[in-house]
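Q: I'm writing a short explainer about ABC transporter ATP-binding protein for a general audience and would like to include a description of its predicted shape. Could you first generate the structure from this sequence?
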Amino acid sequence: MPTLEAHSVRKVYHLHGVEIRAVDDISLAIQPGEFVALMGPSGSGKTTMLALLAGLLHPDAGEIRINGQALHTLRKAELAAFRLSNIGFTFQANNLVPYLTVRENVELMLRLNGKLDRNGRTRTQDLLKRLDLDNRMDNLPSQLSGGQQQRVAIARALVHEPSIVLADEPTASLDTNRAHQVVSTLANLIHEQGRAGVMVSHDPRMCAYADRVLHMQDGRLVEES
Ligand SMILES: Nc1ncnc2c1ncn2[C@@H]1O[C@H](COP(=O)(O)OP(=O)(O)OP(=O)(O)O)[C@@H](O)[C@H]1O
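A: Of course. Here's the predicted structure. Afterward I'll give you a sentence or two in plain language.
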């Protein structure tokens, strides 16, 4: 069974009487351990698609399934709990909590999921080590570089062992070397841990780490490579 499925998904915005088909009849399936990149010009609907896959937006038509569970059948509170345990998300702005240390920021996901036990703490340390942050665990986000902050956000998206990891432009603020390092580590972790990963990126060099590249244009998938 695919970890993540979209069936004929559509999202339409209405702006000053104009209809914008941000996502227009998209279907896709992503298997465990598969890392997929979503590319496309500005305004083609990538962020909207990611928000639909994350259950942050409701489609106007079609359905999203995660591990076979159709999101639209869940009540609001059920959906929130389901998302929390099944999805890891990194945003363009990394959204770290400024007054928590690196370790505490990552452990926050465990705390929210009721998984802050010895295993969870060990996983936090292992992940931060893997992301070259073992000597930064007790620093605040403001004491880190942009690349280090992005890596903390990646640790936070993986630590609670979600089946899906969604990353929106995880390299937007990084120089080329750092960007390669961040995306290759993300790809390795997704492969090793058998998660389904989707990354939005403008950068074809970053998409080279993906198993599959989906191209969006005007809300549609145009080709696959
Ligand atoms: N809340 C909204 N209300 C109205 N229109 C919106 C809204 N959010 C997005 N859109 C429109 O939907 C379309 C898709 O936007 P989206 O942000 O998903 O594209 P994108 O491919 O992620 O773009 P970018 O690469 O610039 O981030 C655009 O035409 C955008 O203007």
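A: For your explainer, you could say: The chain has a mean pLDDT of 92.
Q: Perfect, that's easy to follow.
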